[in-house]
Write a structure and sequence with these properties.
Layout (H helix, E strand, L loop, with lengths): L21 E3 L13 H12 L4 E4 L1 H7 L8 E4 L3 H7 L3 E4 L5 E6 L2 E7 L15 E3 L5 E4 L5 H6 L8 E4 L4 E4 L3 H7 L1 E2 L6 H7 L2 H13 L2 E2 L1 H10 L8 H12 L4 H11 L2 H4 L1 H7 L5 H20 L6 H8 L1 H13 L4 H16 L7 H19 L2 H8 L4 H13 L5 H12 L2 H10 L38
Parallel strand pairs: 3-6, 11-12
Antiparallel strand pairs: 1-10, 2-3, 2-9, 4-5, 5-6, 7-8, 9-10
Helix pairs in contact: 6-8, 7-9, 7-10, 12-15, 13-19, 14-17, 15-16, 16-17, 17-19, 18-21, 19-20
Bound molecules: adenosine-5'-triphosphate (ATP) and magnesium ion.
The site of adenosine-5'-triphosphate (ATP) has 12 residues, from helix 7.
């Protein structure tokens, strides 16, 4: 991309130390309005027509420059949230820590953020609009400023590019276009450590953007993440729930897992899973099951199929539950209560670091409970199980376990065959035990018959195909 004018356009209120933007005019970049969501364009035009500055910013600009389809379109403006609300009937204001306007068009939500000023280095808390914690974490960030100030308080250079609806140019205050062309993910500013302390979630964002977009994390950012990874423990569990979903539903979940582990970011979020993977004997196989699950999730995302957060958590925490249940059973606890206790205690400990909303944790338990039932049931009970609301998820989970050597592949195949038969065929199968019905002593031994839906290719993860819903 060629810069159309390296001269800055002086803008009123720009802080002296903020460099002038590089301006790539409409002929110098590949963003066409046809690629921008109609609703986002409507919001941009209405803000502009009301006399405000309005730009597309963040992932929308970044992904369009990369020739990718953006996940969502974020807008930055000099209008305050209250002014935005006056312009749009379909608008609600959200967030305390970071106040924003959401303009709602049915299921489509356009996020409109007012340009922010950076907080003062000296920790000046002004009049309560900005607040830092003792560790330097941003608690509130609601002081409005200029576009120049807004650019430098964003996270990565590639996320601080503005597509200006006034003249369709791309404004670059931080060298993001060059970094994008070089394939480098770089934090804005010359002190990565401070930027990560301000918001440790930026470490997870670094892993996600690098994995998803195939970027290299700049060396100084890598070094800072290695050092500050333990700060993940200070992040609110509810915020981490959202970030973990974004990581593992990015379409590059297997790479994300590798990178989280390499940086020491996985352990603070999932201490029990991490401990189970470090077992010298069984650790590898346990981790392999999670890798199989994530690979399956990546395939589904990249094929445009739905995925379910509960399935993800069921997979991450499967080894800890098995370990806990085995310990209780070894302690003479009967099998069913042992599993119930194990599931409850693993979930209860997990939510201290990364929360799992109850509507998902309930489904996690159902997926786990189905494992024993899928292993045991024959006859008419097997047919009833086909109608269980979580059958597909439980069956997919079983087949992934089979792939990782944690369940009998013949058992997965038996359930695959059962689903493929018509009613008479199913009756015949459950009565005669034919079609590869599981028999005692075949566990872990059976040969896989690689066809059909085996290996979690079904739609159990998806539910209604609507992403997070189940
Ligand atoms: P995607 O939407 O594809 O996940 P994105 O870059 O648009 O990626 P969002 O979470 O939608 O990410 O945020 C929009 C923009 O807001 C980012 O591009 C970035 O400029 C800014 N931003 C988001 N989170 C942070 C953060 N934790 N610290 C600083 N800036 C942030
Ligand atoms: Mg976005």
């Amino acid at each position: 991309m060629t810069e159309s004018s390296s001269e800055s356009i002086p803008r009123p209120g720009a802080a002296a130390e903020v460099p002038a933007p590089r301006v790539y005019d409409r002929g110098a970049h590949g963003i066409s309005r046809a690629a921008i969501d109609d609703n986002a364009l409507k919001v941009l035009y209405r803000l502009r027509d009301a006399g405000h500055r309005a730009c597309l910013v963040g992932g929308g600009v970044r992904d369009l420059l990369l020739g990718r389809e953006p996940k969502d379109f974020d807008i930055a403006t000099d209008a305050t949230p209250e002014q935005v609300r006056e312009l749009f009937r379909n608008c609600r204001l959200i967030g305390r820590r970071f106040r924003l306007a959401h303009v709602v068009f049915g299921r489509d939500v356009i996020e409109v953020a007012t340009f922010r000023a950076p907080h003062d280095e000296d920790g000046d808390e002004d009049d309560g609009r900005v607040a830092l914690s003792e560790e330097g974490r941003i608690l509130r960030d609601n002081r409005y400023g200029t576009i120049e100030q807004d650019a430098v308080r964003r996270d990565f250079t590639i996320n601080a590019l503005y597509y200006d609806i006034e003249d369709f140019s791309v404004l670059d205050y931080t060298g993001g276009v060059e970094d994008l062309e070089a394939g480098v993910l770089r934090l804005i500013g010359d002190d990565p450590e401070t930027r990560l302390r301000e918001d440790p979630v930026r470490m997870l964002r670094a892993v996600r953007f690098a994995a998803k977009l195939g970027l290299r994390i700049a060396a100084e950012v890598e070094a800072a993440i290695h050092e500050l990874a333990p700060l993940m423990r200070t992040v609110a569990p509810a915020r981490l729930f959202d970030e973990v979903i974004k990581l593992f539903h990015s379409g590059a979940a297997v790479t994300c897992l590798d990178e989280l582990e390499r940086f020491g970011l996985f352990e603070p979020m999932f201490p029990e899973a991490a401990a189970s993977f470090s077992d010298p004997e069984q650790g590898r196989a346990r981790r392999q099951f999670l890798v199989e699950s994530l690979r399956n999730t990546d395939t589904r995302i990249n094929d445009g199929l739905g995925v379910n957060p509960a399935f993800l958590y069921a997979a991450i925490l499967w080894a800890p539950v098995q370990i806990r249940a085995a310990a209780l059973i070894a302690d003479e606890e009967p099998e069913i209560p042992a599993w119930q206790q194990a599931m409850a205690s693993v979930l209860e400990r997990q939510v201290r670091t990364v929360s799992i909303p109850r509507r998902f944790s309930q489904v996690v338990r159902e997926i786990w409970e189905l494992q024993a039932r899928l292993e045991r049931h024959r006859g008419a009970r097997a047919l009833r199980l086909l109608g269980h609301p979580r059958f597909r998820a439980g069956y997919d989970f079983l087949c992934l376990r089979a792939r990782a050597g944690d369940a009998d592949p013949a058992l997965c195949q038996w359930w695959t065959d059962l689903q493929e038969r018509d009613e008479d065929g199913q009756q015949a199968m459950v009565k005669s035990g034919s079609g590869g019905a599981p028999r005692k002593g075949r566990r872990r031994g059976g040969r896989r018959r690689g066809r059909g839906k085996q290996g979690g290719q079904g739609d159990g993860q998806g539910g209604d195909g609507g992403g997070a819903s189940v």
